[in-house]
Amino acid sequence: MMVVGALFGIAVLFFGLDMMKSAFSDLPQDPTFAWLMRKTNNYEIISILLGVLLRVGFQSSAAIAVVAITMAQGGVVNAENAILMLIGTGPGVALACWMLAAKMKGVGKQIVIFQALINLASGTIALVVYMMVIGSSPNMVAQLNQLSMQRLAHHLSMVYLLLQLTNVFVG
Prior knowledge:
171 residues
């Protein structure tokens, strides 16, 4: 019975992510939103902050990954900014945890703060690695932006997976 419940939970998770992808698929066609997001392509820090704010609001890094991939496939943001949005989810978790811990006490507060520190550290590590890779290979961003939509989604999904593995190894 537990296996059926676990499988049902996984099915609901993927159904929700698919619904979110469908809901956000029309967003790139909105002229105001598209103009605003294209302005962020010039400022990397805005993409990171957008990842932070979206993570605090949505409470799901996977949802932010779906949004970032959808926006990159729609041409609203470039690959570099989609990656930076994904990197911003680490500090976003940290901010959400600190907000949660503000009214907590004792061991529960310690656990939440530890979770915040893990995510902040992994986000910082990911950003440093990203800056080192881009600094040593500036053509990589141009190559990412030239990928087909399916390959771009695959590469961004791998970035998300690497960010999650960074959390595991830091924690």
